[in-house]
Amino acid sequence: MDLELKGKLVVITGSSKGIGLGMARGFAREGANVLINARSAEAVEAVARQIADEFGVQTIAVASDVSTAEGCQKIIDAAAKAGGADIFISNAGTGSNETVAEAPDDKWTDFWNLHVMAAVRLSRGLADQMDAKGGGAMLMNASICAVQPLWYEPIYNTTKSALLMFSKCLSSEMVKRNIRVNTVNPGLIRTPDWENTARELHGDAWEDYLQDVANEHADIKRFGSVEELADFCVFICSPRASYSVGSAYHVDGGMLKTV
Ligand code: NDP
Predict the structure, then answer these.
(1) Burial level of 54, CB count in 10 A (0-12/13-18/19+)?
(2) pLDDT tens-digit profile of 91-113?
(3) Are residues 202 and 214 in the same domain?
């Protein structure tokens, strides 16, 4: 299937590693140009160079913190300079660990800015660029935790749930401008972040720990790979998924326990 992505500009936040990097590679494999973003300048530049060399596409490296208005504006400006975005993926995010009783207000605000305001600010700015190109697509990477919480991370669950609702509201507004908006809710995806945490917690037995987590939560009894999730996201953002509007797609190996 030709996904009709050649020459499109795809903006992906948090794309120096993990899921975002997997998506960037997936789009580049289809001939799309990609804007790589993360806070570490060294990491984004290295990834941008590597993807350009491997896939022969144009890459743009933007080191910025998307939890700030300035950090988002830097991305919007860079995308405009490169001819304007066709596709936007709000992916940067991270897990939390707290109780509601003990977490300070600042922590709530920081996660709100990272998971929600980044998507608000970037979708607003990049939509104008998509208008000029006749339309586009946006994808919010929320989490299964937006609808099925894990007990140890109430701030993560709450802000991802807000992102899911934002995405739904945005979709109704944007479809009038020929911009499709959807959400993906991944389950357990094996990223360096999960592996490092497992090593820290369980030393040499880290792989057994990950297997226990998969056994407990996912019917399929394993983590998904970054590529298994990325391929799905590349398709949903492509013109070949043109009737997918305002939906939330679970890619979770059977982790969701409701219909
Ligand atoms: P990783 O920690 O592996 O990667 C996160 C990426 O985001 C890095 O490139 C990081 O680079 C960047 N980043 C983090 N904070 C910011 C920031 N403030 N501004 C810009 N970039 C930032 O995470 P994953 O790949 O595991 O997760 C990606 C997304 O997927 C997250 O939103 C997460 O909640 C979601 N998700 C993940 C699941 C999983 O099982 N892995 C399951 C469900 C959802 P740097 O630190 O240099 O900024």
Answers:
(1) exposed
(2) 999 999 999 999 999 999 999 99
(3) yes
Are 122 and 36 in the same domain?
A: yes
d(CA 66, CA 74): 9
Give 134 Cα–ligand 1 centroid separation in angstroms. Answer: 30
Same-domain status, 52 and 18:
yes
State pTM to two decimals.
Answer: 0.98
Is 245 among the domain residues? yes
Mutate-to-test residue for ligand 1 from 39, 64, 109, highest number of ligand atoms within 8 A of CB? 39
Number of domains in the chain: 2
* Ligand 1 centroid from CA 176, angstroms: 30
Percent of the chain with pLDDT over 90: 99
